[in-house]
Amino acid sequence: MTTAPIRLIVGLGNPGPEYEATRHNAGFWLADHFADDLRASFTLEKPFFAWVARARHAGQAVILAKPVTFMNKSGQAVGALARFYKLRPEEILVLHDELDLPPGAVKLKLGGGHAGHNGLRDIQSALGSPDFWRLRIGIGHPRSLGLAQQVVNFVLHPPRKDDMPGIEDVINRCRVILPQLLDGAFDRATERLHQANHS
């Protein structure tokens, strides 16, 4: 397993106030918390198609980004940043909502498919590789939550009151492992994260 530390963290979501509280924006929520933890603030940088925040960790530059394109064009921002900063896919961490995990569950993984997630699909094609890291934030699936909603409709709605504590807990657990991710200590980060999944 690679030990290149994470240099670029990209939260996925849709821009605009009407999407702010929707499940599909879970990546944005976590990116905002990470920026707070690194005492960095986002400014709009049009050449990168994103809100960008710059921070330092252990003397190294860390970039956080929230694309201003819609979800299915997330690769534009990721591609532009990766090219400009000459980053390899394994130095990039993407934060995104995950239908296949229940609210309150989270997984850290390197590479893999996009499972129909349009943001991941576009990033994969922009980087020409699936080998970037992902923090998958469980939002549940309408079927597993017993809802009749279509998936498209489901991700563009805010989580139910009962699901929010699980999602907030995941965000807090991800914040705890941020230093390990930035140090390239993925085994330790995974262990801490997945331990909590079973506690």
Automatic annotation (TrEMBL):
> What's the name of the protein?
Peptidyl-tRNA hydrolase
| Active-site residues (renumbered) | H24 (proton acceptor)
Superkingdom: Bacteria
EC number(s) stated in the UniProt entry for this protein: 3.1.1.29
One GO BP: rescue of stalled ribosome
Top-level enzyme category: hydrolase
CDD domains, sorted: PTH
Q: Which GO MF terms are attached to this record?
A: peptidyl-tRNA hydrolase activity; tRNA binding
Which residues are tagged with the site Stabilizes the basic form of H active site to accept a proton? D97
> Which residues are listed under the site Discriminates between blocked and unblocked aminoacyl-tRNA?
N14
One Gene Ontology CC term in the entry: cytoplasm
What protein family is recorded?
Belongs to the PTH family.
Provide the reaction this enzyme catalyses: an N-acyl-L-alpha-aminoacyl-tRNA + H2O = an N-acyl-L-amino acid + a tRNA + H(+)
- InterPro entries per UniProt: Pept_tRNA_hydro, Pept_tRNA_hydro_CS, Pept_tRNA_hydro_sf
The species is: Castellaniella defragrans
Gene3D superfamilies associated with the record: Peptidyl-tRNA hydrolase (3.40.50.1470)
Kindly state the subunit structure of this protein: Monomer.
Q: Which UniProt keywords apply?
A: Cytoplasm, Hydrolase, RNA-binding, tRNA-binding
Location(s), subcellular = Cytoplasm
